[in-house]
Structure formats: C-alpha cells, structure tokens
Amino acid sequence: MIPEQVDALIVGAGPAGSAAAILLARAGWSVALIERQRFPRRKVCGECIAASNLPLLAALGIGAALERLAGPELREAALLDGAHEAVGALAAAPDERFPWGRALGRETLDTLLLEQARAEGVQVLQPWSVEALAGAPGQWRCALRSVDDQSPATLRAQLAVVANGSWELLPAQRERRRGVRGAGDLFAFKANFLHAGLQAGRLPVLCLDGGYGGMVLADGGVTTLACCVRRDRLDALRAAMPGVRAGDAVEAWLRGACTGVDRALHGARRDGPWLAVGPIDPGIRLRRDDTHFRIGNAAGEAHPILGEGMSMALQSAALLCTLLLDAPPGTSARSAAWQREVSRRYAGQWRRQFAPRLRLAAVFAHAAMRPASSAVLLALVRAYPSLLARGARWGGKTRCAVDPGVLAARPA
After folding, report:
1. How confident is the chain (412 residues) per 10-residue block, as mean pLDDT?
2. DSSP string of 25-56?
3. What domains can be seen in the chain, in order of their start residue?
4. pTM summary value
5. Are 89 and 390 in contact (CB under 8 A)?
6. Are 126 and 38 in contact, with CB atoms under 8 Å apart?
7. What is d(CA 30, CA 10) in angstroms, rounded to the nearest whole number?
C-alpha cells in the first residue's frame, strides 16, 4: 500500500538514499524510498569503502554484516604504470575499531542498507519509477509508475531528497544530459574475476595512456577490475578489434598495457560480463536555486580514481540529515522556511567537505592518463612512498564529514 503523504520522499535507494532514509526514519519521520531497479544489482563501481565510512556504516546498523562479509583490510596502495610499479603503505584512520578500508560488492552493500531501511520503518517502493517531481518545499507531488505492471500512483511529501546517482536520471534531467560528444569523454568499465592473483590488502591504481583504473579484492574472493577510458582511446581499441565487444577490447588493452593487471588475472576466470556506463560527468551539481536536496552523485561526482564516490554518497547523506534533525526547539524541520535555511547551510558545508576532494581527484586523474605526467608520478612515489598515505589523507580516506558518534547516539 502506497501512502498518500509522507514527511520525506527519497529518490534512489543506493548508499546515499538508503542512508538518508535510515537516519530520518530512525528519528521518527515517515519516509518513502523510491527505487527503479530490483536488488541485488551489479553497478559500475570500484567497490572500495574507505576507513572513514566504516564507523558511519556501523551507526547505520550494518557494521556487523560488513565486518563479516567484506574483503581484507586495505593496508597498502600501488601505482602501476606499464611494467613499473611503486608501493607504499596507506594511512590508518584514527578510529581504532576501523583503521583500514575494505571492499564490498555493490550488490551486497546496497541490499544490506535497503533492508536496514525497511527494518527502520521506511516505506520502500521498488521497482517504481519517478515520472515527475513537482512542487516546492512543504508541498511536493511525485508521480510514480510501477515497473512491473505500469500502474500509476501519486505521493505527496513535505521534503524531497534526490539521490538517484548519475544514470537513473529524473525526467527533467534527461535532456540536459544529452550534451556534445567529445574525444575526452570518459566511459567507465567494470568486471569481476574469480581466482585472480591480486595480493590481499593491496589497492593498485592503474596509470593508462588514455585512461586510469584500479583493482581490489572484495567479498567472496572476488577481484574487481574497474577503469575509465577516454572516448578517443575506446574508439581506437574498437577499431583495432572489429567485432569484439567493448568490454573485451578494454580487457585486452588493460592486460597488454599494464603488467600488473596481466599478472593478477593470469589463471583467473571472469565472473559475468563487463559492465559499462558513460560518459561520466565529474563536477558539482548542487545549485543555488535547488528546491529539493541533492546527495550522493546527484550533488557532485569526483573522478573515481580516488574511490571517493562511496564516501561522498554516505557522508553527504549523513551531513544533510544531521542538519535536518537539528532544528531549534519550536521549529519544524519540514517547513519551507526551515528547508531553505538548511539548504543554504548544507550547500556551504558540502562544498567545504567535498569540493577539495573533487579537485584533487581531477588533478590525479588527468596526470594518470598522460604518459609523461604518469611517469613523474611513479618516480615521485618511488622516491617518497609516503605520498600515497598523504594522498589518502588529502582525499578524505581517513576522516568523515560527520561525527558518526552523533548519529549513533540518536534514538533508534
């Protein structure tokens, strides 16, 4: 049964949307969480969870499951460039319970968070698509349609949160996404492999002529290989291998261009097909005239070379909910006036926390995609291995935008 009205509707049940739903429902809000895709689902994602997010996930209620299921602790990083590599230790996070990052497949993580949202009393509408979202703070109207039988429904809410990521766009966003094609457009690819030879606890970053990538050992002994490829490089790969699927052409390129990839995949078996999305669109999407709230990739997207997508999803949700739930006595956090004030504060805090990460990721990504600059990067890391740990700190791997202890202290 779909409710006629809720305090908050959230579009998208990925990590950002489910985290926000959990926190608001736990505080007594009525929440509807709308998701078009069925779970479990695979996603193009590097699947790394930085140590800074583990206390937050514990506060959300899935810490024990994550500890049981996730891959080994990530204690060192490696920069791979052709036949060369440089290795350095990663920085430990200050929380003694969760000093190191882990990796967990999105099909597992997203399902854990969604089930926790259900347990907190969230009304989950899945699979349902958003046909239109209209109105203003305090009086939102959402037109929905069932993916299964195409039946329509209408949902009203006082507050709207958009957490639909990069690819499940709202109707009003779809036309804006169709931009001019360029040679520098980046397309993301991901595949899982069984019985790979990647060293446990190591996080390799790949420097490629026309792209960048990474590998990690996640849950169930699955090694994830993910990369971003420029359009001109991808076109050249496909022209050189006519009739070959794009993912297979990318895999052949990765094996030939990077000795570390070929060595790790020797004797491995790919588990399922290559996934691809694109072009990716890094940048800040928060706007001054926003009337709904944006979290996750709907707020801003970093080049995935630093693996900050998960951090920005979870931490932006926590940041927004902390502000929404801290209304002064006698003030309704659901009123239009209060929402406008929260929006202003949220946008400022979001930019302070995440804009530096976007800039660092962009610098690193463009350096990794060019042979001359990637050679300089490799030489620097070889001479100063501590740069990898410093880069992890600069990229937000060891700090959370919100104190998870504050969230854990809220009534459940």
Report:
1. 90 97 95 95 90 95 96 95 94 91 96 97 96 94 95 95 73 53 92 96 96 96 96 96 95 97 96 94 88 95 89 96 82 78 94 92 94 95 88 79 72 46
2. HHTT--EEEE-SS-SS---S---EE-GGGHHH
3. 5-70+98-175+282-367+387-408 (3.50.50.60)
4. 0.93
5. no
6. yes
7. 11
- How far apart, in Å, are the Cα atoms of 168 and each of 34, 163, 371, 382? 11, 9, 34, 41
Strands of 252-316 (E only): list them.
269-270, 275-280, 283-284, 293-294, 300-301
Query: Which residue, 212, 261, 202, 266, is CA-closest to 83?
Result: 261
Q: Residue 108 is which amino acid?
A: T
Distance CA 346, CA 231 (A): 35
Query: Where do the DSSP E strands lie in 137-179?
Result: 139-146, 152-162
∠ at Cα 312 (278, 188), nearest 5°? Answer: 20
Token reading at 372: 């001359």
What is the C-alpha to C-alpha distance for residues 324 and 338, in angstroms, rounded to an integer?
9
Strands 186-194 and 222-230 come out as antiparallel
Q: Is 182 exposed, middle or buried (0-12, 13-18, 19+ CB in 10 A)?
A: exposed
